[in-house]
Design a protein that fits this description.
Helix content is about 0%, strand content about 45%. The chain has about 675 residues and is mostly beta strands. The chain starts with 9 loop residues before the first strand and ends with a strand.
Length: about 675
Amino acid sequence: MSARQGRGLRRIAFGAAVMTAVGALTAGAAQAADPVGASATMARTWGVDGHVAALAVAGDTVVVAGDFDMTIGPSGDEHVVTNLARYRPATGTFDPWPVVVDGPVGAVAVAGDTVYLAGDFRHVDGALRVSLAAVSLSTGAVLPWAPQANISAEAIAAVGSYVYIGGAFTTVTDGTGSVDAAHLARIGVDGTVDRPWSTALTLDDRVRTIVPKADGSAVYVGGDFGAIGSATYAARLALITTGPVASVDPTFRMGPNNNGGRAPVFGVALQGNALLIAAGGGGGGCTLQDATTGATQWSYHTNGNVAAAAFLGPMSYCGGHFSGSGSFNLLTRKKIAEVVTATGQITAWAPNVNSNLGIWALVSTGSALVTGGDFTKVGPTPQQHVGMFADRSLVGAPAVPHNLAARAGDHQVVLSWDYPDTDGGAKISKFAIYRSRGGGSSSLLAKTANPSYVDTTVQNGILGDPNTAYAYTVRALNAAGTGPATGQVQALPLAGQLITPSAPESFVATGDLGVASLSWTVPLSDGGSPITGYTILRGTASGVLAPYDTVPPQATSYTDHNAMLGTRYFYAVAATNLLGPGVQSKEGTATPDTGVPAAPVLIGVSAGGAAHLSWTAPDDGGSPITKYVLTRDGVRVFTGDASQRSFVDSGVKTGQTYAYKVKAVNGYGASHYSDVVSITI
């Protein structure tokens, strides 16, 4: 099942107005006065339906960039977005932000009201913007800034009147023509390439990260490069001045960052004079260095690339692709680890981040550690691709539950509601239901772990007599306390009053090999009349479902054998009694699998005059992978069996740049190719 399948689901198009968020998580505080480090549990909030590649802090929001097309609420509600979104950690919600990017966004930076983005796109809101663009943070409007790089930039930073970009590109183009600027360039806020600065230095390989010094006088540039000009001491990470002509600061010389060596730098975080480095190479490295000299303060080896780094209060955080026993300095950590910055002590903090590659981006807002990547669950928290660990000093009660509804029958009232937008940073343990009658005082009726309840302790009332009606409110509870109450809803149970069944519970839709599979559990209430069957509803757009099939009352699953391979379907199920179909379940979405594998994830570096490639084993799609096929500039250079996931290409020339991609093959066919990886030898 793909990252965009099997989620639940009411799709709602965002409006154009920018929402004003009301703080719930921090009880009105935008930032911890004295942050102490991340909470042990990721907050349950809104997420997105696909890969998150980059994050950037913008005041009380975080700009989220990647390859996705929906935001998903804790109860399955969906809002349309396209590869770029604005997330509010304080409320766990996304702003309506009308930005449409037609391809993945891999890097993002914010300066004032301008958001700069780089990626594999060609248009933003219909305007031609090839690989680079700028939009308004407040309105989402596309700005005139429109340079181009011949290969997508992987890093971007804004300092003063300039934007710095890095990547595998070799030329950058503005309105006056192209400039030979290999791997690093500076562009004015007017879109003009700064030619003297961009051509002053020669980098021999890609740039992956750019982080400015606090005073803007220089930028830390990290990546795969083995030298800048003749300065081999500048390999992997260098401090480059932002004056009229770029120069390498010779007083900064990075020490070892991975198992005693100097490995490619994937991410950097700066706090005071502390420089936290996320390194790849053989395994990976999480390293703290002196930001002035580059001297290593502490360094820990991992069994997979470290992709991102961030500080929160006195703690350092490294996230990436490492996992399992002994994965972080011989300790077991699953994609993320916490280290005391001042002492280098590895703490016991150890969330379990799922997915193959886990984390790709980390930022700190001062009140939370926000992370993005491929995960769909972190410890006990179901969380889609972006989420936050609140600072431990700010974990609070959950926000208010949504959409409380009550339906009255004969001696029963059926209640249902949606999860809050945020659980406050600690898992919701129960929902508390309060009841009153005839305008009297409200008292606790019950507690339940589920967002629904059937009250069978009511007395039937009298039609037209409000004093015999019941009123209900609901609050969410976690370890930090009790959240605010919903608004009241009223219900009047009456003798002989039948209602249609409540919604089937625990509805799940998944795409399996050639079919869509549905499952559910029986409704909490049959409405006072036995359930006679279930209606399956299906459509190809959320919210536009039609009856598709029926099954007998004892059924709790269904397999759709007539679904077209590769087509995304939306499903729901409703129970039927004497009165007819009842409340529909939450929507589910599924795409029948074709059986072919997912695309591998390819990485590569230049070393020793050759291109060194490796890739992950993807989901096999339903049949074992039989081989991998690797191409260079569109020509096959390697075919190997399923056990071979690396290749050294020595048939290359120094000074040349090559584009590689790999695909997996099984008994059903071939996957899509991986994203292109460009390597300069």
